[in-house]
Specification:
The protein has about 325 residues and is of the alpha/beta class. Helix content is about 35%, strand content about 20%. The protein is built from ten helices and 13 strands. The protein has helices spanning about 40-50, 65-75, 120-130, 145-160, 170-175, 180-190, 210-220, 260-270, 275-290, 305-315; strands at about 5-10, 15-20, 30-35, 55-60, 85, 90-100, 105-110, 135, 165, 195, 225-230, 235-240, 240-245. The strands form two sheets. Strands 5-4-1-8-9-10-11-12-13 form a nine-stranded mixed beta sheet, sandwiched between helices. Helix 1 packs across helix 8 (about 260-270). The longest helix is centred in the middle third of the chain and has 16 residues, at about 145-160. It is globular and about 55 Å long. The protein starts with 5 loop residues before the first strand and ends with a helix. About 45% of the residues are buried.
């Protein structure tokens, strides 16, 4: 097993979910939650449950929502020493309601929450200075300050021979912000493992087709690309060829966080040197298990649970 330590910088939230399907939050309605959430936090929790060392750099409020997250992450093995407890701002939150067509309506409080403020403490500096691997998620690139910190951390990790993974998870309007195209070009130039979903594969390239995007990214120095395609499955691409796996068929309850579980599993196993096809299969199992649980972090699983699930589903398909 590799002892390489992963560091993730980004938001910790609570998620509160509407119990009924419909449009938005303009009427009083039953809700369930709070659930621990935030893309970087979900990723880190899944990595920890695999048994890989991982630290999260973030902030929560001095409130029950913050304590809920810290208790959960700490219990699952995430190093939360780099999580700042902000006495002036509340923990970030996301309210979500599903529509009949599967789309979602959100009400976020991130920018004005503890997660929206940068707190680079001595502990944070020490974590960045000793990390073997940095994971970057596009949802955390919410301001020039957070972009700059992720870029500085990536440069620090790579200067020591470490590696960087990048899950773009970027809205196109964010990419139009001043300085973002240049910043994302720098990020891609330092990315070893790229984890786009759907049409994000071409998002940070000049390519139109997936094949051209893969060729361009590999030419820029990306070592490996894992293309997440939801219910279709996922594919792995590197200079030596490609592999693909189908998604495991499950009854979807809540897709939020599935991509982060997939990414956390694949990244941890990739760092251990697992054969890409097997790492891809277990990552697909991780994403499938995640969608069967209500709550974005409730479907994280241990390696043993993922292996058992994959065996069971493969046997059932025969």
């Amino acid at each position: 097993m590799s002892g390489k330590k992963i560091v993730v910088i980004g938001e910790i939230l609570v998620e509160i979910m509407a119990d009924t399907i419909g449009d938005g939050f303009r009427d009083a309605q039953p809700l369930t939650g709070p659930f621990p959430s935030g893309a970087p936090a979900i990723f880190a929790d899944q990595v920890a449950r695999i048994g890989q060392p991982v630290a999260l750099i973030s902030a929560v409020g001095d409130d029950d929502f913050g304590r809920l997250n810290l208790d959960r992450l700490g219990r699952d093995g995430v190093d939360v020493s780099g999580v700042f407890v902000d006495t002036e701002r509340p923990t970030g939150s996301a309210f979500v309601r599903y529509r009949g067509n599967g789309d979602r309506d959100f009400v976020f409080n991130i920018g004005h929450s503890a997660a929206g403020r940068l707190n680079v403490t001595d502990t944070v500096e020490a974590l960045m200075a000793t990390a073997d691997h940095l994971h970057v998620t596009g949802s955390s690139l919410s301001s020039p300050e957070f972009v700059a910190l992720n870029l500085r951390a990536a440069e620090s990790v790579r200067s020591r021979g470490g590696t960087v993974s990048f899950d773009p998870n970027l809205r196109r309007e964010i990419l139009s912000a001043e300085g973002m195209p240049e910043a994302m070009s720098r990020m891609i130039s330092m990315t070893d493992l790229y984890l786009p979903s759907g049409d994000e594969l071409t998002l940070l390239t000049g390519a139109i087709t997936p094949e051209a995007a893969i060729e361009e990214l590999l030419g820029l120095g990306v070592q490996a690309i894992v293309h997440k395609r939801g219910a279709i499955g996922a594919s792995f691409h590197c200079g030596n060829g490609s592999h693909a796996v189908k998604a495991f068929p499950v009854d979807e309850v809540d897709p939020t966080g599935a991509g982060d579980c997939f990414g956390g599993t694949f990244t941890a196993l990739w760092l251990r040197g697992m054969e890409p096809r097997e790492a891809l299969r277990l990552a697909a199992a991780s994403g499938a298990l995640a969608v069967t649980r209500r709550g974005p972090m409730e479907g994280t699983a241990t390696l043993g649970e993922l292996e058992a699930f994959a065996r069971r589903m493969t046997g059932a398909a025969r």
